[in-house]
Design brief:
globular, alpha/beta, five-stranded antiparallel β-sheet, single chain
């Protein structure tokens, strides 16, 4: 490892330069098939620090690579030098001119940016399929486009200006009035060199013609030489050369883009053809109808799609042979406009050689199914690869008229080189397709085969007048072929560009250009099997934006790749590395995972990394802990009442009298064992038991035990006393019962309810014996209360509802028994209570916090409906995410909840809402701690605003 002292001096805190093995290996992976382990990982705080780090890199001769989202597929975000994270502290967005323009930093995801622009009826031009996870830094670095934007609304065309930090440390805002003069003064050699290169290119007719031809289609191969033709001022050339430069020329601290209208109305259809040739033949007619999007899926893509959850019937029921399909979408600003486009499209269907009936739909759920099929295709195919193999995704473009022929030749090459399960899909309207290879890429035979295939593929694409990279960037995978695509003269121009910007050659070397013809065959990652829950992970990074621990410890992707690094080290006999990685893995991965399952909602291959963490916790749980938690399950009524009493008592004591011994206990017994008390915690709650109703019940009510342990907001009193304070209520059990009474609904609370639980505390901690004990008790009680499934079971805490559903899924009904049905109280209220409530006055505004469980269960629409009955204006923060309180996780590791809620809490503070609500008691506690505002169950507020006068 080289001397990193200059890097430590370049940042405010030397601890920002991380060199622990777990930091290096967790950050070694991006979404590509390459793997390089960095010497250090640096969390830069601002652009000034990045500039200082760039100067340190040049001074010490240590390569430096910038990374934001890490979703790039060509190897441009991995390094064996210093890796600088420019995501965590670079997430600011400023909407300009009523949404017509936007200033944005590199760490903002495309989805988050579009959420900020949506209220203005605008959106970001590029629309990559990875929009949930890819960031603006990568969009600029790769000149990203996507399914709709083509070459018209990509990053290059919509860029207005950017602020770039050059390798020298010079900062240039290309949008400033004096930007050109400033560049000439501060970087005279660069300024003069760009002007000379422009003159050189413009003076060579062959160069002009080749550049115009290459950039008439999607093209991210090499540097964007069209900048030298499209712009006259060197500062504008600089700005647009940075686009697509893959982090080899400078750091984009922020960029200003022109936005485009967000067309809210769309109609989508999947057209199935007998084969690729028929699909390609239909393209001119479909493009002529005004289709905004035309996506190609080959036969294998359709077969893979049939196995995806939620796949539409048109694919699921197809007997796939040589078929191909085109996903076609029309979009417009008004319903009548999209209806007219849809009519034109449907008339065109009559003249197409379709293999199955087709129609266009404007239904949002049906359209979402079709796009789920297309957007999840890459990771789904890669996730289904044979165990231990690596997925490699290529990306090419050819003129549209030869697309079908090119695809047929690709299939022939797959057969020639024995690549099975190689799908072809992509943006047919642009002549841009992706294809996937899966193999070991480890043995000499495998690498020789891949090398020969690549040579034939390059000849095929360039022979058709295409580009070897359309939108994924040159990266490492195509860097050796840039000269072949452009020729010696233009390759020489590119080499000169790199020399002018980065004389030391330390900024992302080996990316975009590499004269080593074997470079793309080196550093290919392997994926040793580690756990069935996660082995299909392709490191795409889609999980990272929704992970609550992403800014504190590890993300789901990092938890998985670190486990693979441990296994690889074990297989290699590197016991020292195994020991070093395992030493930090417990806190970084296991203790600070909220096991909330939000990663699964974003994962295209349906991985819930929380299940992996739960399995690790199970294996780590010793007999003493298991025994104690099993005893707790057997006496849960006493445990919950004891916790309630303890909270009530300590709530009355001076904080210092509680905090000091509490911290001492944590120091002795461990922070993952003893919760940390904090003053905002309420007093204890009340028992859940209720008398048996006189009337026949309409539903069984399962009030969550968190209502016994934690009293309602403002509760700091003894049992039996009324809670006090401005937001004091009586708790969700009282509120739900009152609402049901007003709606004429009779509830039955199970006998022995105070001894029952959904089982989540045991499952999340890996306490198997106690989980089994509680499951048996709870299922028996629910069978009895529901008359063997005759009645629905309603639970009033979303995480407990989800926990009960998991318990019920494992239940095997006996003969004559019906399956048990679990309904969340929010869903129940939306369907059965809201329609029966009288007109009532509403609050002015409500800040709403959906939970991870309400999101996973798909009940947020019901939550919105109930919230809308409470307040005139309901606001879910743009920065909403899981609060990570996760039962007691937020008390064991308060730093986790603080990190997860930091941005959301700041946004909530600006809303100035009349009230704050959620649908899960522990999440309410977490958000109360984060914001200083009392969060309550939305049903408590609904009960209050609909309460009869004098009630």
């Amino acid at each position: 490892m080289q001397n990193l002292e200059q890097f430590r001096l370049a940042v405010a805190d030397p601890a920002q330069v991380k060199t622990r093995a777990i930091d290096l290996h967790a950050n070694a992976h991006d979404a590509s098939h390459f793997l390089l382990v960095p010497q250090a990982v640096v969390m830069a705080k601002d652009a000034a620090e990045v500039g200082a780090l760039l100067r340190a890199s040049a001074a010490q001769g240590v390569p430096l690579t910038l990374r934001s989202g890490g979703t790039s597929l060509s190897g441009q975000a991995v390094t064996d030098g210093v890796l600088v994270d420019v995501r965590r502290n670079f997430r600011d967005v400023e909407v300009l001119d009523g949404g017509a323009r936007v200033r944005v930093q590199p760490g903002v995801t495309v989805r988050a940016l579009n959420a900020r622009l949506a209220p203005y009826g605008r959106k970001f031009g590029p629309d990559p399929a990875s929009e949930a996870a890819c960031t603006i830094g990568g969009v600029v670095a790769n000149n990203s486009s996507g399914m709709n934007c083509g070459t018209v609304d990509n990053a290059y065309r919509t860029l207005e200006s950017l602020t770039v930090v050059l390798p020298s440390g010079t900062v240039i805002d290309t949008g400033a009035p004096d930007a050109d003069a400033r560049l000439r003064t501060l970087e005279p050699e660069l300024y003069k060199g760009l002007a000379q290169l422009a003159a050189r290119v413009r003076g060579n007719k062959d160069s002009v013609n080749r550049i115009r031809q290459q950039f008439s289609m999607k093209n991210t191969m090499g540097y964007g030489l069209n900048s030298l033709l499209d712009y006259d001022r060197p500062v504008d050339m600089l700005a647009h050369l940075i686009v697509g430069s893959e982090g080899t020329l400078g750091f984009v601290a922020e960029a200003v883009f022109r936005t485009i209208p967000r067309l809210p109305h769309a109609a989508t259809g999947l057209l199935v053809f007998p084969d690729l040739q028929a699909a390609n033949a239909a393209l001119p007619a479909l493009v002529g109808t005004g289709a905004a999007t035309v996506e190609l899926l080959d036969a294998l893509s359709l077969k893979v799609g049939q196995a995806l959850k939620g796949t539409p019937a048109v694919v699921r029921d197809l007997a796939v042979r040589e078929h191909a399909a085109l996903l076609v979408e029309y979009s417009a600003g008004q319903q009548d406009e999209v209806a007219a486009l849809r009519e034109v499209g449907e008339r065109a269907l009559a003249g197409l050689a379709l293999a199955a009936p087709a129609q266009f739909t404007a239904d949002a759920s049906a359209r979402a199914q079709l796009w789920h099929l297309r957007k999840g295709l890459y990771a789904s195919v890669a996730g289904a690869r044979p165990q231990g193999t690596t997925a490699l995704l290529e990306d090419i473009v050819v003129p549209v008229p030869v697309l079908g022929r090119t695809c047929r030749e690709l299939v022939r090459l797959f057969d020639k080189y024995r690549y099975e399960n190689s799908v072809i899909f992509g943006h047919a309207k642009d002549g841009n397709v992706h294809f996937m290879l899966t193999d070991g890429f480890a043995t000499a035979e495998e690498l020789d085969r891949y090398s020969a295939f690549t040579e034939d593929m390059v000849d095929l694409v360039l022979g058709e007048g295409g580009s070897l990279k359309a939108e994924h960037g040159t990266g490492r995978v195509m860097a050796p072929y840039v000269r072949r695509q452009y020729g010696d003269e233009l390759y020489g121009v590119m080499r000169r560009i790199k020399e002018l910007f980065d004389p030391a050659g330390m900024l992302n070397p080996g990316v975009l250009m590499d004269d080593d013809p074997q470079a793309h065959l080196r550093h290919i990652k392997t994926a040793p099997p580690v756990a069935e829950e996660v082995d299909r992970c392709v490191s795409c990074g889609y999980c990272e934006p929704v992970c609550p621990s992403k800014d504190l410890t590890l993300t789901p992707r990092q938890r998985i790749v670190t486990l693979r690094a441990i296994e690889a080290a074990r297989l290699a006999g590197d016991t020292a590395l195994v020991k070093e990685l395992e030493k930090d893995y417990d806190y970084e991965s296991v203790q600070t995972c909220a096991v909330d399952g939000m990663c699964q909602t974003a994962c295209p291959v349906d991985i819930n990394t929380g299940l992996l963490v739960k399995r690790i916790r199970r294996s780590d749980a010793g007999p003493v802990a298991n025994g104690a938690w099993n005893a707790a399950a057997k006496h849960w009524d006493g445990v919950t009442r004891g916790a309630s009493l303890a909270l009530t008592v300590v709530n009355k004591l001076p904080a210092p009298a509680v905090v000091a011994p509490n911290k001492a206990a944590r120091a002795v017994l461990g922070t993952d064992t003893v919760p940390l008390y904090s003053p905002e915690l309420p007093g204890g709650g009340s028992v859940r038991k209720r008398p048996t109703p006189d009337r026949a019940p309409d539903a069984v009510y399962f009030p969550a035990c968190v209502g016994t342990m934690f009293g309602p907001a403002g509760a700091g009193t003894s049992p039996g006393e009324s809670p006090s304070g401005p937001a004091a209520g009586r708790g969700v059990q009282y509120s739900f019962e009152q609402l049901c009474e007003r709606a004429g609904i009779t509830l039955l609370v199970p006998e022995r309810i105070d001894s029952l639980c959904c089982g989540t505390p045991w499952s999340s901690k890996g306490m198997v014996a106690g989980q089994a004990t509680m499951k048996e008790k709870t299922l028996a009680a629910l069978r009895e209360a529901t008359r063997d499934g005759e009645l629905a079971i309603v639970c009033d805490a979303s995480s407990c509802t989800e926990g009960l559903r998991q318990v019920v899924e494992a239940d095997d009904p006996g003969v004559g028994q019906k399956p048990l049905r679990i309904v969340d109280a929010v869903d129940f209220a939306a369907e059965h209570i809201l329609p029966r409530l009288p007109e009532h006055a509403k609050l002015d505004s409500l800040a709403l916090h959906p939970t991870c469980s309400s999101t996973r269960m798909g009940i947020n629409s019901s939550l919105d409906a109930v919230a809308s009955a409470v307040a005139e204006k309901v606001e879910v923060p743009v920065n909403w995410g899981c609060c990570a309180f996760a039962g007691d996780r937020g008390m064991l590791h308060p730093e986790l909840t603080e990190s997860a809620t930091r941005k959301q809490a700041a946004e909530v503070g600006q809303l100035d809402a009349s009230a704050h609500a959620s649908c899960n008691r522990t999440c309410e506690l977490g958000m109360t701690r984060a914001t200083g505002q009392d969060y309550r169950h939305v049903l408590e507020l609904l009960e209050e605003v609909t309460r009869p006068i004098g009630g």
